[in-house]
């Protein structure tokens, strides 16, 4: 695997004056590493027909990986060409940028944890000042068991467990073009990838390089054209180097709040202010005809970057019940003229059960709410209600560390000065809850010898 960091690849500081020899690959750097350039924006790879027979699912996966970089990395000059070859390949150094399933004999023991690996052959500099070094060849090898261990779907469902062939090859093509591992951002090029699959997958589940990957390709190959493209993704950055799917809460109730994470990408070439709408959807397609609106927010995001944020929405009493997917749509009104409108909607991978029972509404009064210690406060929650009219239970946390109280009305004395958040939790017979808070302010009387601030 290529471990060259993008920071080095981005350091394009000067022109290379030396003439490049003919090469199968396109990477070029000076001997001292102070400058980098590329011979061409088009690279030819030769996949093996023996490994990926015509009409096979794995062949379709290989071609989908090529299309991912060619068609879905917005604004870049980089293009991959395929020249399919039958028969056997030589080893690294035969001048062919090959793609094939490795045999057990040429799959090294140190690669046992990898689904695939990219190897490079480089020329060397000997004469001062030197003609420069370049990558002469890049070979992509898939593990020997790939035909049975990789999901060949070109329309993958986000998963933390199953490795997808198209996404594996998308990742390896990134290494072949010169991108290194990125562990500090959500990227297809994370070093731990593709053990959990990564990359944005929207409504159509097309395979796209991540926004951070697009930035890397543009830095290496230049920007071909200005492009605007925002996207939704169900992935988040987990431990460094690993992408994870975002998990939805298992249950929620009508008339109650629910929180979840969501990821938005700016895959374009300019900074964007992105409107995001949240929905309940009976399926992961987030169909406009069946989705139920929950709320909205706005995300400001630099070009070719992503963000995972937290959303808290209220499930209205009119929301559909049963299993629903929490979902979101970027640029729902098409205010942004995008190069790709098919990656704007996504739903979390697991549904949330929305119970028919609506949550109660917690409400209480407190009197007095301020005064000198000792301050005796009367609390009354008779204004709390339940939409179904079920019996309510009441739990009081007075905010000063004292034992909890119960009942519709209680009283409590505060003996220390300070600010105390009294919290009422109301629970209905179906187990749905609601919370209300009120601040109590307690001061020390003048000349007091026993009252001290908490």
Protein model, in words:
It contains five helices and 26 strands. The protein is mostly beta strands and about 450 residues long. The strands form six sheets. Strands 1, 2, 3, 4, 5, 6 and 7 form a seven-stranded mixed sheet that branches. Strands 11, 13, 14, 16, 17 and 18 form a six-stranded mixed sheet that branches. It is elongated and about 90 Å long. It starts with 5 loop residues before the first helix and ends in an 11-residue tail after the last strand.
List keywords for this structure.
mainly beta; seven-stranded mixed beta sheet; about 10% helix; 26 strands; six-stranded mixed beta sheet
Oligomer: single chain
Strand content range: 35-45%
Which descriptor suits the 3D outline? elongated
Amount of helix: 10-25%
* Structure summary, number of beta strands: 26
Tell me the span between the first and last alpha carbons. 58 Å
The helix-and-strand class reads mainly beta
- Which consecutive residue ranges, at least 5 long each, have pLDDT under 50? 1-37, 126-131
Mean pLDDT: 83
Largest sheet: 7 strands, mixed
CA radius of gyration: 29 Å
Total DSSP helices: 5
């Amino acid at each position: 695997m290529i471990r060259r960091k993008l920071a080095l690849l981005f350091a394009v500081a000067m022109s290379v004056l030396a003439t490049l020899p003919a090469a199968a690959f396109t990477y070029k750097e000076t001997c001292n590493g102070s400058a980098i350039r590329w011979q061409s924006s088009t690279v030819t790879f030769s996949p093996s027909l023996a490994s990926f027979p015509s009409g096979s699912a794995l062949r379709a996966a290989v071609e989908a990986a090529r299309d991912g970089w060619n068609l879905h990395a917005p604004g870049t000059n980089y293009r991959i060409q395929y020249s399919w070859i039958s028969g056997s390949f030589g080893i690294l150094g035969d001048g062919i940028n090959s793609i094939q399933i490795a045999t057990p004999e040429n799959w090294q023991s140190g690669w046992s944890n990898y689904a695939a690996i990219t190897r490079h052959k480089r020329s060397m500099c000997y004469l001062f000042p030197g003609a420069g070094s370049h990558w002469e060849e890049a070979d992509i090898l898939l593990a020997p068991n790939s035909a049975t261990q990789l999901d060949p779907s070109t329309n993958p469902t986000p998963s933390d467990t199953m490795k997808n062939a198209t996404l594996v090859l998308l990742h390896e093509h990134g290494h072949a073009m010169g991108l290194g591992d990125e562990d500090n951002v959500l990227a297809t090029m994370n070093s731990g990838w593709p053990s959990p699959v990564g990359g944005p997958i929207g409504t159509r589940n097309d395979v796209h390089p991540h926004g951070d990957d697009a930035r890397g390709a543009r830095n290496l190959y230049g920007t071909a054209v200005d492009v605007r493209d925002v996207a939704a993704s169900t992935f988040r950055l987990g431990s460094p180097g690993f992408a994870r799917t975002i998990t939805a809460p298992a249950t929620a109730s009508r008339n109650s709040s629910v929180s979840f994470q969501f990821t938005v990408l700016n895959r374009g070439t300019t900074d964007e202010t992105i409107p995001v709408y949240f929905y309940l959807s009976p399926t992961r397609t987030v169909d406009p005809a069946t989705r139920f609106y929950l709320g909205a927010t706005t995300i400001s995001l630099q070009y070719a970057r992503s963000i995972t944020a937290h959303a808290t929405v209220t499930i209205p009493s009119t929301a559909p019940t049963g299993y629903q997917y929490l979902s979101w749509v970027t640029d729902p009104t098409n205010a942004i003229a995008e190069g790709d409108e098919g990656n704007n909607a996504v739903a979390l991978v697991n549904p949330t059960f929305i119970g028919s029972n609506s949550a109660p509404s917690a409400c209480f009064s407190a009197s007095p709410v301020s005064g000198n210690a000792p301050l005796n406060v009367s609390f009354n929650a008779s204004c709390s209600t339940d939409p179904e009219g079920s019996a309510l239970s009441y739990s009081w946390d007075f905010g000063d560390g004292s034992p909890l109280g119960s009942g519709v009305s209680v009283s409590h004395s505060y003996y220390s000065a300070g600010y105390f958040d009294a919290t009422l939790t109301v629970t209905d017979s179906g187990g749905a809850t609601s919370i209300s808070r009120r601040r109590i302010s307690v001061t020390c009387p003048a000349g007091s010898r026993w009252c001290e601030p908490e």
